[in-house]
């Protein structure tokens, strides 16, 4: 009987997805909403990367909520895993843990600088090309994870990371409030000069906000990864 119900469930989902696939019709032209943002973001915000302009300015409240969720995840992981791996038990785990292979150690020495450099590039150029604060912060955190794999005994200063991500969050909110006071709404990027279109220093406050997001996301993800390691 259990197998019969499982078979019925599988057939039901197969029928549902087959219907969705058969009814899918690729859009041949850009919708009016997409056309609005594709023209409005470069013209009004001065950002060639339309996605970053939308995420940081037009839906800044949502982005703030996403960062808050990530912070709560980091805090929850730290709370759940606190107390584990302390004292002699941790020391025994370190002794029993096999050392990283030579390939990982040597590879990390070559790849790590490029990962951190690429993460910084993605963060700083998020208003010009594909990427932004979230993506760059995740790249930096992946470098931290590789560092932990290559050097298991290395320690990460959680206090410094906590202060760093807290300051980034506070400045992020302050810039948002400045947008209300000096512009037309929360996180209005017009509080800074728009600059020349396509230049590194351009798009108003978008690069600053993107950098703050990158710092915050990179720090929080690094703490989460280190919590699972310990």
From TrEMBL:
Keywords: Cell membrane, Membrane, Transmembrane, Transmembrane helix
InterPro entries: CPA3_antiporter_subunitB, MnhB, MrpA_C/MbhE
Superkingdom assignment: Bacteria
Na+/H+ antiporter MnhB subunit-related protein domain: residues covered: 105-221
Transmembrane regions listed in the UniProt entry: 63-82, 103-124, 136-155, 167-187, 199-219
Record-level GO cellular component terms: plasma membrane
Compartments in which it is found: Cell membrane
Its membrane topology: Multi-pass membrane protein
Record domain MrpA C-terminal/MbhE: where: 7-81
Family the entry assigns: Belongs to the CPA3 antiporters (TC 2.A.63) subunit B family.
Record-given protein name: Sodium:proton antiporter
Organism: Shinella zoogloeoides
